[in-house]
């Protein structure tokens, strides 16, 4: 049997991203979304989530960009009180330079914000997959399990398209996979589980209808999470550009829904695990 969770990342990032996620859920195959706490579109995303009770909600844990919820971090934040950015945060995580108590406190604060907003939080993943880097799995899993979260993302991509030759992206896929393999036992000790398979890193920026249909045809047996980033375009290029709308169009394509039926793939979400 093949089961598929289609999870939209960055819910709450902006109004444009929120609109795309809502459309991809209501008209398409998105079953879950991971929310960025206190990003620009966060309050709107909370209101939308309340209007879409069938959309499963998780935390898109942010430890790298913008402002933390907890004040006074010495290792997670710089002198200006803001997170350190993608590359510096990854470096510090890999080199185990973050204070685990700070990571645990920040994780708890972000989970609490969602739960106090009245949302049921079923799963956790990391903005830029930071939750599997270095020694971060230990404090993150402690905070998550204490708050009743039992599922996490294991971003070891098994849906790399045949003939895929983007060397930089393949290196990224391998980096995430190695970090995942090291972190999975830590999350398991906290009685947290992930899907058996994951896809979406190699497909990022390439997820049109044909790419999605090919991914579905290559879906392995068991339970898979497909990471997507639907939204309306906010820029002429880059990650907030036309690729976001292309994903909405793919996720709402009637051929995709028919393919799920033909391939006997059942949609599900983390809340059902």
Brief sketch in words of this structure:
Helix content is 40%, strand content 15%. With 273 residues, the protein is α/β, with parallel strands linked by helices. It has one domain: Alpha-Beta Barrel (TIM Barrel), CATH 3.20.20.370.
Which labels suit this protein?
TIM Barrel, globular, alpha/beta, 8-stranded parallel β-sheet, 9 helices, 273 residues, 8 strands
Q: Strand portion, in percent?
A: 15-25%
Average pLDDT reading: 96
Structural class: alpha/beta
User: What is the straight-line distance between the termini?
Assistant: 15 Å
CATH architecture type: Alpha-Beta Barrel
Q: Uncertain runs with pLDDT below 50, 5 residues or more? A: none
- The radius of gyration is 17 Å
Give the helix proportion (percent range): 25-40%
Description:
- The protein is an alpha/beta fold and 273 residues long.
- It has one domain (2-272): Alpha-Beta Barrel (TIM Barrel), CATH 3.20.20.370.
- The protein is 40% helix and 15% strand.
- The protein has 9 helices and 8 strands.
- The chain has helices at residues 15-26, 42-51, 86-94, 100-116, 137-146, 167-189, 209-217, 242-251, 254-262; strands at 2-11, 32-35, 56-61, 121-126, 151-152, 197-199, 222-228, 265-267.
- Strands 1, 2, 3, 4, 5, 6, 7 and 8 form an 8-stranded parallel beta sheet that branches.
- Strand 1, helix 1 and strand 2 form a beta-alpha-beta unit.
- Helix 1 (15-26) packs parallel to helix 8, helix 4 (100-116) packs parallel to helix 5 and helix 7 runs parallel beside helix 9.
- The two termini are 15 Å apart.
């Amino acid at each position: 049997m093949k089961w598929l969770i289609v999870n939209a990342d960055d819910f709450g990032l902006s109004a444009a991203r929120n609109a795309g996620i809502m459309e991809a859920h209501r008209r398409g195959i998105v079953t879950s979304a991971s929310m960025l706490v206190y990003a620009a579109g966060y309050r709107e995303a909370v209101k939308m989530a309340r209007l879409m009770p069938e959309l499963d909600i998780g935390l898109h844990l942010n430890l790298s960009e913008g402002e933390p919820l907890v004040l006074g971090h010495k290792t997670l934040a710089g002198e200006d009180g803001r997170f350190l950015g993608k590359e510096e945060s990854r470096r510090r995580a890999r080199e185990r330079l973050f204070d685990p108590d700070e990571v645990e406190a920040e994780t708890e604060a972000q989970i609490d914000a969602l739960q106090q907003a009245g949302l049921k939080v079923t799963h956790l993943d990391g903005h830029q997959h930071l939750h599997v880097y270095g020694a971060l799995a230990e404090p993150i899993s402690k905070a998550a399990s204490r708050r009743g979260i039992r599922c996490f993302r294991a971003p070891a991509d098994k849906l790399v398209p045949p003939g895929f030759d983007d060397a930089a992206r393949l290196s990224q896929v391998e980096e995430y996979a190695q970090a995942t393999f090291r972190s999975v036992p830590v999350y398991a000790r906290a009685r947290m589980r992930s899907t058996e398979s994951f896809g979406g890193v190699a497909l990022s920026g390439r997820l049109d209808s044909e790419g999605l249909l090919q991914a579905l045809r290559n879906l392995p047996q068991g339970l898979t999470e497909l990471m997507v980033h639907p939204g309306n375009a906010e820029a002429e290029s880059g990650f907030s550009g036309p690729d976001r709308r292309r994903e909405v169009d793919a996720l709402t394509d009637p051929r995709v829904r028919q393919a799920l039926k033909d391939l006997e793939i059942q949609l599900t979400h983390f809340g059902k695990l």
